[in-house]
Design brief:
about 140 residues; mainly alpha; 2 domains; 5 strands
Amino acid sequence: MTLETLTKDERKEIQAIVEGLDNAAEEIRKSIAPQVHAIGAIEGIRDEFLMARGDLEVAGYCVGCECILFHGDRGYHYEDGEISCIDCSPTWADAEESFKAAAGDDEEHAEAYADFKSRMEEHVAGGGSVNEKIPYII
Ligand SMILES: [Zn+2]
């Protein structure tokens, strides 16, 4: 069946099916409108709640203890995008172990490890310990 060979009857049959499906979708769209409106209202309340507490912005939840984290909190960013609170964050020594355990011979990992190593050495040269938490700002 191509556009050029469609008969009037085939067009009518296709139209009936397409209109039926469109109408079914529209009925569902109408039926969920109150829920969509309620979700918007709840999100507005959530935003006002956070705004009233110093314009807090939720960054996510700690991968370790699941506590809420805000942008500006101290914590740790993992390579896979997860974040942790400062209490659950790795120490410099922990992070180095993870780098070693994840050792691969891809260049990206080697560069990330070299970058980490130089920051750790800078931290230690400045009087820090490898047993301290790595202070990132979330
Ligand atoms: Zn935590």
